[in-house]
C-alpha cells in the first residue's frame, strides 16, 4: 500500500531533526525533576543554536492544564517555537515489572549527539522496534564505534558490579539516573562498558522518566543471553516508581 501525500512545512525540525526535547514525569500535573530537565535541555538548545526553552513557571503552568495522576510530558524546542505534549504515563506490562527483558541491539548512538536529546532520534527508534520484535521491553544501543554499550532506547542503564554502581559512558546524561544516584548515596563511577562486561554485573536497572527505575532480569542479543537477580530499589520515591497503571 502506498503512503499518502503530505504537505510538509519547510521547517528544519521536520526536515532535518533540528530540535531538542526532554520528557518529564508528572504527578497530578506537577513536573518532577523539572529544573534538572530544563538545565539539560538548555545545554542542548545552545549546542544546536536553538532558542532557550520556556522558564520553569511557564512549563508548570502548561503541564497543570492536564493534571493526570501520572503523566508523561514532552517539551520540544525548535527554531520556530516550542510545543508540548502531555499524556497519561503508560504502565509497564505486569510481566516486566519485577524484572525486564532487554535486547542488546546493533544500532549505534550518534558520535556527537549521544549526550543530547534531539530530533535526530532514528537509531533509538529503530533499536526500540528491534527490541519489540524480539519480545523485549527495551533495547541497549552501542557506542558510535560499536565497541561499547552506551545507552538505552528510552532509558539509561545502571549496573551494580561487586558492590559498586557503574554508569556506562557515551550516552545521555540521564536526569532520573542522576537523581537516583544522589538519593541513594552509594559510590559510583563512569565506565567504558563493553558488551562482554555485562556478565560481571550482579544487578542492572533501567532509569528514565517513563520507566522509573526498573530492575532487569535478562539481557539478550544476537550472541548473548544473560540473567540477573532483579532487585527493586530499597526505598520508595515517586520519581523512580515503576508505572503500574494505578
From TrEMBL:
Enzyme class: lyase
One Gene Ontology term from the biological process aspect of the record: carboxylic acid biosynthetic process
GO molecular function (one): 4-amino-4-deoxychorismate lyase activity
E.C. number(s) listed in UniProt: 4.1.3.38
Keywords assigned by UniProt, alphabetized: Lyase
Protein family (similarity comment): Belongs to the class-IV pyridoxal-phosphate-dependent aminotransferase family.
Protein name: 4-amino-4-deoxychorismate lyase
Amino acid at each position: 500500500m502506498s503512503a499518502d501525500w503530505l504537505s510538509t512545512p519547510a521547517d528544519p525540525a521536520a526536515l532535518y531533526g533540528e530540535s531538542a526535547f526532554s520528557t518529564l514525569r508528572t504527578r497530578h500535573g506537577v513536573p518532577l525533576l523539572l529544573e534538572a530537565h530544563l538545565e539539560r535541555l538548555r545545554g542542548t538548545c545552545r549546542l544546536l543554536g536553538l532558542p532557550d526553552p520556556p522558564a520553569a513557571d511557564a512549563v508548570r503552568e502548561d503541564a497543570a492544564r492536564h493534571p493526570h495522576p501520572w503523566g508523561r510530558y514532552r517539551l520540544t524546542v525548535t527554531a520556530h517555537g516550542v510545543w508540548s505534549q502531555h499524556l497519561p504515563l503508560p504502565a509497564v506490562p505486569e510481566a516486566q515489572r519485577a524484572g525486564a527483558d532487554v535486547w542488546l541491539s546493533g544500532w549505534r548512538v550518534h558520535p556527537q549527539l549521544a549526550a543530547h536529546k534531539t530530533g535526530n532520534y532514528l537509531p533509538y527508534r529503530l533499536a526500540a522496534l528491534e527490541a519489540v520484535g524480539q519480545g523485549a521491553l527495551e533495547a541497549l544501543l552501542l557506542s558510535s564505534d560499536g565497541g561499547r554499550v552506551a545507552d538505552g532506547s528510552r532509558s539509561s542503564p545502571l549496573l551494580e558490579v561487586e558492590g559498586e554502581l557503574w554508569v556506562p559512558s557515551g550516552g545521555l546524561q540521564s536526569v532520573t539516573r542522576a537523581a537516583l544516584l544522589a538519593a541513594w548515596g552509594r559510590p559510583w563511577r563512569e565506565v567504558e562498558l563493553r558488551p562482554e562486561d555485562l556478565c560481571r554485573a550482579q544487578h542492572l536497572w533501567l532509569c528514565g522518566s517513563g520507566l522509573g527505575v526498573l530492575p532487569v532480569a535478562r539481557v539478550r542479543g544476537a550472541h548473548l543471553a544473560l540473567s540477573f537477580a532483579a532487585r527493586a530499589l530499597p526505598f520508595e520515591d515517586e520519581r523512580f516508581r515503576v508505572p503500574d497503571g494505578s
